[in-house]
Amino acid sequence: MGMTIPEREIAERPDGYGGPNLSPVGLELAPHAFADGVWALMANIPPKDNNGLVAGRDAALVVDAGITPDMSHQIQRLAAGLTDRPVRYLVNTTYHGDHTFGNAAFPAEVVILSSRRNRSEMSDLAYEKEVRSANMYGDAALLDAVQRWRRPDVVFDEYAEIDLGGRIVQLHHFGPGNGPGDTVLYVPDTRTAWTGNFLCHAGLAHMLLQGGPEPYARSLRRMRETLPGLDTIVPGHGPMGDGHAAIDALLGYLEVLHEEVAAAVAAGRTLEETYTTCTDRWASGELDPSLTAALGRYQVPPDLAKAGILALCRDLHRLNVLATYRLYS
Ligand SMILES: [Zn+2]
């Protein structure tokens, strides 16, 4: 269809939209080891940001920087407690502030890497802070501490790899998804991928901000073909999960979203009508059983976690309908 990706993420929001709470207040990261030197750093409260730490014989690498300098320091303290290898690399999975505002709080000699498209999105700090303020739930003043948006030092188009000494880390950009430059980090020896905002646990709603359903689906198929050995994903938000199940679930969702919104636009339906004609798989109040089990591993009371995630999924689904409707109209 030759559809181009919009320049900026959609700023319009559905009525009553809440969106994810990404405030760092109360956020603590707990390490989960996949192997000696490979850890997911999991947020205690979903869907606040998760991170990662990968160490080889010579050096260590951190996945995503935290939303404030304080969070960035928490991540660096955690890394220093888990490995004596020096942190030499930081990877940004997306340009969003909750993944990059902490960049400037890393030492200058730490090399920051991301896709070229992510870096090109990191030009207007004031605008990005304004967008991210909506995710701060009363704590937006904490973003005042973000004075500088340090951009990646090294970029790649589709693929790069880093040798940490006896451990290779692969960086992939499979195409647009949540944003235009989503970067996936893969550690082949543990078959784990850090997926940022590109891919969440099966059964969670995703957020289509810039790509549209069809380009997103092409990117996911590329991921499936490129990483046949993929086992576990560590998303930027929410619980860890089975990588291939997550890809299949999202492909199924995108297919239905594309068909239903395209049909609504072709039939001349209004946006409000389209909200009601598109399948809302969260309307029943039930979650995918594997997702319920995964949420049970958090300290948050399960009922509260479930209610919060359901409300968020409905919000994100309506946003996806809106973004796709605008794209197709
Ligand atoms: Zn995010």
Structural notes for this entry:
By secondary structure, the protein is of the alpha/beta class. It has a single domain, classed as Metallo-beta-lactamase, Chain A (4-Layer Sandwich), CATH 3.60.15.10. It contains 9 helices and 13 strands. It has helices at 69-82, 97-100, 116-121, 125-133, 213-226, 243-266, 271-277, 289-295, 302-328; strands at residues 29-35, 38-43, 51-55, 60-63, 87-91, 111-115, 154-156, 159-163, 168-172, 184-187, 192-196, 232-235, 241-242. The strands form 2 sheets. A 7-stranded mixed β-sheet has the order 1-2-3-4-5-6-7. The protein starts with 28 loop residues before the first strand and ends with a helix. The model has no long low-confidence stretch (mean pLDDT 94). Zinc ion binds at residues 96, 98-99, 197, 236-237. The site of zinc ion (ZN) has 6 residues, from helix 2.
Short overview:
The protein has about 325 residues and is of the alpha/beta class.
Shape: globular
Query: Which fold does the CATH topology refer to?
Result: Metallo-beta-lactamase, Chain A
- What is the count of structural domains? 1
Overall structural class, as computed from helix and strand content, comes to alpha/beta
Unreliable residue stretches: none
Strand order of the largest sheet: 1-2-3-4-5-6-7
Question: What would you say the CATH architecture is?
Answer: 4-Layer Sandwich
- Just give the CATH class: Alpha Beta
Quick one: how many beta strands? 13
CATH superfamily: Ribonuclease Z/Hydroxyacylglutathione hydrolase-like
> Which compounds are bound in this model?
zinc ion
